[in-house]
Amino acid sequence: MNRRIKKLFGKISKKNNKLLLKRVVEEKSKSIALRASLLAIPYIGGTLDFLIFGKASELRLKRLENFINDLRDDFKKISKQSIDQEYLKSEEFSFICEEVIRRAVREYNKSKINLYRKFLEKSVLKVPHKYEYRDYLQTLTLLTIKQLVILGYINRTVRA
User: Fold this and answer.
1) CA-based diameter of the chain, in Å?
2) Vertex 89, ends 78 and 46: CA angle to 5°?
3) Model-level pTM?
4) Rounded distance between C-alpha atoms, residue 50 and residue 19, angstroms
5) Cα distance between residue 120 and residue 7, in whole Å
6) Secondary structure percentages of the chain, helix, strand, coil, to 5
7) What are the pLDDT digits (tens) for 54-94?
8) Which of 64, 81, 95, 114 has the fewest CB neighbours in a 10 Å radius?
């Protein structure tokens, strides 16, 4: 009887180990794919990989994956000449990058997530700006989508 129990538990244990190993491999594969997506982003992929890779909940991980894929697609459309290479090396860019990604991953509203992505994209371009990007980011975070739509309408009306 003792041998039977050991044999049975041995089979169960092996089966559980195989299932556990399968789950670990699946999760590791997702992580590798995400890191590869990060590194595929022109100009800033390595920085992003360094700043944000870590454990996250399944929902946040999915948001992060979508954000990165969309960001990669956006950055592929930008010419190298329009990128402020010095800014990419700055401490401000590292801070902005980390903050945008952190906030986008925590945000559930897809429109707001898209605004964070566009903000990061615009921040690397060679364009003059009046304020620090930190101020723009703080404002974007504080405003609701409705308030941002109203501001956009006012901006278009004033320029017309």
Assistant:
1) 88
2) 65
3) 0.62
4) 31
5) 58
6) 80, 0, 20
7) 545 567 788 888 999 999 999 899 888 888 888 888 898 88
8) 81
Beta carbons of 117 and 74 less than 8 angstroms apart:
yes
The answer to whether 76 and 107 have CB atoms below 8 angstroms apart is no
Report DSSP state, residue 44: T
Cα angle 44, 49, 53 (rounded to 5 degrees) comes to: 150
Which pair of tokens denotes residue 60?
């946040």
Side chain identity, residue 49? D
Residue 55 backbone phi and psi in degrees, to 5: -80, 145
For 148-160, what is each residue's pLDDT tens digit? 889 888 888 877 6
Q: Is 53 left (phi over 0), alpha (psi -120 to 50) or beta?
A: beta
With the C-alpha atoms ordered 107, 38, 138, 82, is the resulting torsion angle positive or negative?
A: negative
Residue 121 belongs to what H/E stretch?
Answer: helix 110-123
Q: How far apart are CA 148 and CA 134, in angstroms?
A: 17
At residue 57, what are phi and psi to the nearest 5 degrees?
A: -65, 165
